[in-house]
Amino acid sequence: MTSRNLRLLILALLLSAGASLPLHAQGQAAAPAVSPPGAENAAASVPWESLSAEQQKVLDRFSGNWSALPPGRQNALARGSARWLKMSPEQRVRARDRFVTWRNLPPEKRMRIRERGEHYLTLSPDDQQRVRDGIHKFKKLSPERRRELRETWQRLTPEQRERLRERARQRRENRPPNPRDGN
C-alpha cells in the first residue's frame, strides 16, 4: 500500500460509515446544535420577547412553551434561528436536507457522530486544521474513489485500522516541519 493510499484510507476513517465530521468542523451552518449533558441549565434563559420578529416567526412552534424549555435549548434555538435567517435559499435547502438526514439516522450512528464531534473539539487547533484539510482533500476525489476508499476502510479489521492510525501518528511525529504550515 502506497503512502498516498494510506493517507487516503485515514481520510476515509474520518468519513467512515458515510458520515462526515460535525458541520461546524466544516465551517457550514449546522442543524440544531446538541449541547453536552448538563449544559442546558448552565446558560441564562432567553426571553421570547428578546427575539426579533423574524426569529419568533421561525420559532413559532415553540412560542407556547418557550419558557418551559431549558435555557441551553433556548440559546441553541435562538442562535440557530439567527443563522437560519442569514442563510440564502440554497443554504436553507441544504440545511433542511442535512437535518432530515440526521433525524433519519439510527440513534447509535448519531451517537457515534456526536462522539467524533466531541473528540474533534478536544484536538489542538493544528490537528483540527489537519482534519479540515483532510476532509477538503477527500471531497476533491472523484465519487468513485471516495466509494472505493470507504469500502476498503470498512473491510479492514479493527486491528488493521488501528495499525493504520498508529502509522499515521508516527509519520506526523517524525515528519520535518513544513514551511507552508508556518512550522
Descriptive report:
The longest helix is centred in the last third of the chain and has 17 residues, at 158-174. This protein is elongated. Helix 1 (3-14) crosses helix 6 and helix 1 (3-14) packs across helix 7 (143-155). The protein has a domain at 41-104. With 183 residues, it is an all-alpha fold. Residues 1-41 have low confidence and may be disordered. 11% of the residues are buried. The protein has helices spanning 3-14, 53-58, 71-86, 89-104, 107-122, 125-140, 143-155, 158-174. The chain contains 8 helices and no strands.
Helix content: 55-70%
The averaged pLDDT comes out at 79
For the biggest sheet, the summary is: none
Fraction in beta strands: under 5%
Radius of gyration from the alpha-carbon trace, in angstroms: 20 Å
Total beta-strand segments: 0
What is the H-and-E element order? HHHHHHHH
Low-confidence stretches: 1-41
Distance between the termini: 29 Å
Morphology: elongated
Structural class given helices, strands, pairing? mainly alpha
Q: How many helix segments?
A: 8
Give the topology:
Blueprint lengths: L2 H12 L38 H6 L12 H16 L2 H16 L2 H16 L2 H16 L2 H13 L2 H17 L9
